[in-house]
Amino acid sequence: MNWDDTTDTDAAGERLVGASADGEDQAVEAALRPKDLGEFIGQEKVREQLDLVLRAARARGATADHVLLSGAPGLGKTTLSMIIAAEMGAPIRITSGPAIQHAGDLAAILSSLQEGEVLFLDEIHRMSRPAEEMLYMAMEDFRVDVIVGKGPGATAIPLELPPFTLVGATTRAGLLPPPLRDRFGFTAHMEFYGPAELERVIHRSAGLLDVEIDTAGAAEIAGRSRGTPRIANRLLRRVRDYAQVKADGRITQEIAAAALAVYEVDARGLDRLDRGVLEALLKLFGGGPVGLSTLAVAVGEERETVEEVAEPFLVREGLLARTPRGRVATPAAWAHLGLTPPRSQSSGNGQQDLFGA
């Protein structure tokens, strides 16, 4: 969810508007995390559908169906997994795909589960293939075959498992093989939050953190949170610190705007890296098209950083487009930076590259 300097990164080197969670974010999230579906803000359709799944399971006295949650980081997948366990009155075991590199790793976890327990498997798309194949049988038949020995003398010993609920989370649902995806009884995609929903998140978090904030202050933070509750909570904490040091501790629109200007998060949620990419694209290359490697060199970043960290949000915001000829700035990008596009773009030549691709 989730101060000494004026950069857009924290002490761990993570971006202030990055959606990944470091140790500090995880600790704060634990304190702010809603405990049941009634407290969970946003994702209305997912909450309604999940509520029906869990109520039906409780009425039958059975474990809930396996659940797959997909969506960008910071939207509440881990929170929902904990809510599923709480609603079912069951313990929860948390692990991740990268931590399961061998089938034996998964067998050790599955064999120690209690009946009805919820197993939350984050980044499930990054699990090793042998473990993935073992998971098929575990999900469907609540059984795994443990291989003893090697080569021709190896034997498979069947191990019965107690009924459990697997909650898988992924940011890249397309990487899941169909046999695994089909074994989930309920699949949900987490959407980005709207400004009104983020304002509710911010007001709730401010109450838990004992921070006084007015409606305009919450709206200012929400507008810069990139549709992500984790980022909204992180920005709230930074603005809280600024308000305590520079003002009377109360967050208003003016205080929020001043604080986020210090941290270089602009009114649309762009940070130093995002603006650097746009400024290079507009000022050095006339809005494009320009190749990704050239653009990365111009901003002094690795190609992967530009492609995987900056571009997704710029594309989602309609500020940048990927075309067969390279990256192209949109009219909205010129307007956001207060620049005038070259005559070639304003007359339509650039637009053909952008919208004709």
UniProtKB/TrEMBL annotation:
Catalytic activity: ATP + H2O = ADP + phosphate + H(+)
Compositionally biased intervals (Polar residues): 342-357
Stretches for region Small ATPAse domain (RuvB-S): 194-264
Top-level taxon in the UniProt lineage: Bacteria
SUPFAM superfamilies on file: P-loop containing nucleoside triphosphate hydrolases, Winged helix' DNA-binding domain
Domain AAA+ ATPase: 63-194
Keyword field contains tRNA-binding: no
Binding of Mg(2+), residues: 78
EC number annotated for this UniProt entry: 3.6.4.-
Matches recorded under CDD domains: AAA
InterPro entries with a match to the protein in the record: AAA+_ATPase, AAA_lid_4, DNA_helicase_Holl-junc_RuvB, P-loop_NTPase, RuvB-like_N, RuvB_wg_C, WH-like_DNA-bd_sf, WH_DNA-bd_sf
Residues bound to DNA: 303, 322, 327
Localization (cell): Cytoplasm
Molecular function via GO: helicase activity
Keyword match ATP-binding: yes
Family: Belongs to the RuvB family.
Protein role: The RuvA-RuvB-RuvC complex processes Holliday junction (HJ) DNA during genetic recombination and DNA repair, while the RuvA-RuvB complex plays an important role in the rescue of blocked DNA replication forks via replication fork reversal (RFR). RuvA specifically binds to HJ cruciform DNA, conferring on it an open structure. The RuvB hexamer acts as an ATP-dependent pump, pulling dsDNA into and through the RuvAB complex. RuvB forms 2 homohexamers on either side of HJ DNA bound by 1 or 2 RuvA tetramers; 4 subunits per hexamer contact DNA at a time.
Subunit and interaction comment: Homohexamer. Forms an RuvA(8)-RuvB(12)-Holliday junction (HJ) complex. HJ DNA is sandwiched between 2 RuvA tetramers; dsDNA enters through RuvA and exits via RuvB. An RuvB hexamer assembles on each DNA strand where it exits the tetramer. Each RuvB hexamer is contacted by two RuvA subunits (via domain III) on 2 adjacent RuvB subunits; this complex drives branch migration. In the full resolvosome a probable DNA-RuvA(4)-RuvB(12)-RuvC(2) complex forms which resolves the HJ.
Entry-linked NCBIfam families: PRK00080.1 (NF000868), ruvB (TIGR00635)
Protein name listed in UniProt: Holliday junction branch migration complex subunit RuvB
Protein species of origin: Streptomyces thinghirensis
